[in-house]
Design a protein that fits this description.
Immunoglobulin-like, alpha+beta, 4 domains, 10 helices, 519 residues
Length: 519
């Protein structure tokens, strides 16, 4: 994707690079909501571009109506046709947004502008990349085609002018060599969370509008010639990046958006009170932020109309975020690792390349760690720790590191039940219908199953002596089945010495006994 120098590109670099920075962070609910704040900021910036395009179009109409040359009428008609096609293109992208929004559960209760399932990654993949159920390509394939078609039309409206073409930012990225992605849609949207799709689509609309603004400026220059008057102005800033690390330089182009093709004449610009020199209508601004967080740039442009001598002053305020390099390890469920099950953790690296990130496991609990996603890992531990000992997850990247301790525990004791009951009265029919005991892990968030490995069954008939039989496994053996079949109202049955074996156990562990009265 090219980086245009055209003044109409005032917000695109800032917003899109903030999106890239957010994607490098651990995907929490706060980050997901931040995507919608970013999307709202892009939409507000789009409104500024819309207003600018209207202003330029009015100038084209005014000049064409004042000088009804055939060539001016042709340029005016071209501007009308291009804006009509821009409207159709942005409406098409809005339709994709609505389809994704509805598929993600529609408006949430807390905020109707945010859908319910903002973290879902399957919805964008199914709708925009490939629908496995329907065996057909998603909307992203057609979107790529429409982007290229509209770009070609913009180049045509610019009459092939190379300076204008360089300012047309609307395009699709090439799929990197060696990537397993099949096409642009696969590269851009596969496994992208729903929350991230909206600013990406709004960014595409922004590129379309700012690219159209570049073409309108070209047409305006052709219609106006050297008689164009300065009658409306905007000051704007195009940062090289919208998210920088503390200690790095923040660099931006501060420019005047005007009707003239040469806005540098009679113009002076200052930023935060300091006057800047201009070259080719652009003032260069550089700073080195000393603190993290929101930073504000205040720009002022003073313009003298060369025809009327009128002096105008235009002020603008622009914000950008300063972050700090960091590496962080966090538990996806709890700060405990359970033996012999998959324990998910997340490792985020902000301001550093993911290729430099090294993640490992150490400590008394032993174990291994495997990558399960861009920021997700699975840890398996093999033995419990002693009091005061921990298993550690360590992440290192570019001189930064984070080390988090995790207590290692065996899976908690399961609860033995017969027909979903641990004790109490049970009807004769229901009691005889059971084939044995089951072991259940109540309120355990991990994927694990335990099994009954043995118990002793005791039958105490009403006003008779007790009869005892041992049983291996969960299901009744022949002798225990015989005792069960003798059940009569008033009998009492005891399940004693119940043992269960869970993942990671070397032998069965004793768990709860059961007592049932037959009714």
């Amino acid at each position: 994707m090219s980086i245009p120098k055209e003044p109409r590109q005032l917000m695109i670099n800032l917003m899109y690079l903030v999106l890239t920075a957010l994607l490098a962070l651990n995907v929490s609910a706060e980050v997901m909501n931040a995507f919608f704040s970013l999307n709202k900021g892009l939409e507000n910036s789009n409104k500024i571009v819309d207003n600018t395009n209207i202003t330029i179009k009015n100038s084209i109409d005014k000049q064409a109506d004042a000088n009804k040359k055939e060539v001016n009428i042709k340029f005016k008609n071209s501007a009308d046709a291009m804006l009509s096609e821009l409207k159709d293109f942005t409406a098409y992208v809005d339709g994709i947004k609505k389809t994704v929004f509805d598929a993600a559960g529609g408006p949430s209760k807390d905020n109707p502008t945010i859908p319910v399932n903002i973290k879902d990654k399957d919805i964008p993949t199914r709708l925009l990349v490939y629908d496995n159920a329907k065996k057909k390509d998603g909307m992203g394939v057609e979107l790529e085609k429409k982007i290229k078609e509209f770009r070609d039309k913009l180049i045509k409206y610019a009459d092939g002018d190379q300076g204008t073409i360089k300012s047309i930012s609307l395009d699709t990225e090439e799929v990197p060599k060696g990537s397993d992605k099949k096409n642009w849609a696969d590269f851009r949207f596969r496994q992208m969370p729903v929350a991230a799709v909206f600013p990406i689509l709004t960014k595409i609309q922004s590129d379309a509008k700012t690219s159209s603004a570049a073409v309108l400026n070209y047409i305006n220059g052709k219609v106006a010639g050297e008689d164009l008057k300065f009658d409306n102005f905007k000051v704007a800033i195009a940062p090289k990046t919208g998210y920088v690390v503390r200690g790095d330089k923040f660099e931006a182009d501060v420019y005047l958006a005007a009707y003239s093709s040469n806005p540098g004449q009679g113009v002076s610009i200052s930023v935060n009170g300091a006057n800047l020199g201009m070259k080719d209508g652009v003032a260069k601004y550089t700073s080195t932020p000393g603190s993290i967080g929101k930073q504000t740039v205040r720009a002022t442009a003073t313009i003298k109309n060369p025809l009327t001598g009128e002096v105008k002053r235009v002020d603008g305020t622009f914000d950008y975020e300063v972050g700090e390099r960091s590496v962080a390890v966090s538990a996806d469920k709890m700060n405990v690792f359970y033996i012999a099950v998959d324990n998910p953790v997340s490792v985020s690296a902000a301001g550093v390349s993911s290729n430099k990130l090294n993640v490992g496991v150490s400590g008394e609990g032993g174990g291994s760690i495997t990558k399960a996603g861009s920021t997700n890992y699975i840890v398996r531990v093999s033995r419990p720790t002693k009091p005061g000992e921990f298993c550690y997850i360590t992440a290192n990247a570019d001189g930064l590191s984070d080390k988090k301790p995790f207590r290692v525990k065996r899976i908690p004791d399961p609860v033995a039940r017969l027909s979903n009951k641990a004790n109490g009265a049970m009807g004769t029919g229901e009691f005889k219908a059971q084939g044995g005991l089951g072991a259940f892990l109540d309120n355990f968030d991990f994927d694990a199953k335990c099994a009954i490995v043995g118990f002793t069954l005791v039958r105490v008939p009403k006003r008779q002596d007790a009869v005892r039989e041992a049983n291996d496994g969960a299901r009744y053996n022949g002798k225990c089945r015989g005792l069960i079949d003798q059940a009569k109202p008033g009998d009492t049955y005891y399940f004693e010495d119940v043992k269960a074996k869970c993942p990671g156990d070397n032998a069965g562990r004793p768990i709860n006994p059961l007592v049932f009265t037959i009714k």
